[in-house]
Amino acid sequence: KNEVEQSPQNLTAQEGEFITINCSYSVGISALHWLQQHPGGGIVSLFMLSSGKKKHGRLIATINIQEKHSSLHITASHPRDSAVYICAVNLYTGNQFYFGTGTSLTVIP
Amino acid sequence: ETGVTQTPRHLVMGMTNKKSLKCEQHLGHNAMYWYKQSAKKPLELMFVYNFKEQTENNSVPSRFSPECPNSSHLFLHLHTLQPEDSALYLCASSQEQPGNTGELFFGEGSRLTVL
Questions:
Q1: Could B100 and A86 be called an inter-chain contact, meaning their C-beta atoms sit closer than 8 Å?
Q2: Residue B44 class from Cβ within 10 Å (0-12 exposed, 13-18 middle, 19+ buried)?
């Protein structure tokens, strides 16, 4: 069993739709990260959060520490948002990260 | 541009070859990582270096040999690999602070194919 579970695994949306990707984890963490991976491999960090909510442009990330759950929302989705979104958690001890398997998002024009 | 550069981007090698992957970070970070990404699986941590000292070796076979000559450069030396080692190898860096690890910055990855 993976310490970090994401849902859904695959998601197809029409351009303009509101998108939610969920992440649940089972370990104590100091921070949770949302990452974006485009075809070709490179990974970009979108958010690092340990409480509450963060917003960057059309992206919003929330975390509920008590429920060990985080969500990534994309408003007014666009085809350029098509990518794999990965949830990762950082343990309290050392620089150990656990990663989800990713959510593959396709936004259709 | 994330500040972490990996070369080569693509590598094809036979099982008897010796090759190396290189990673360089321009962010002044004190921790560097090698991760392996296989299809449909989470990123797997291979090695962590803090201030040039290896702090994690996640039961990686000895055919993978890391080298960290300074806090900005990280190598992964490859020797006698198996076809199942074909994957995307990602380098990352972060700024480690007491009790907290900062954001991860990844390179573009090196796509390795072992024939």
A1: no
A2: middle
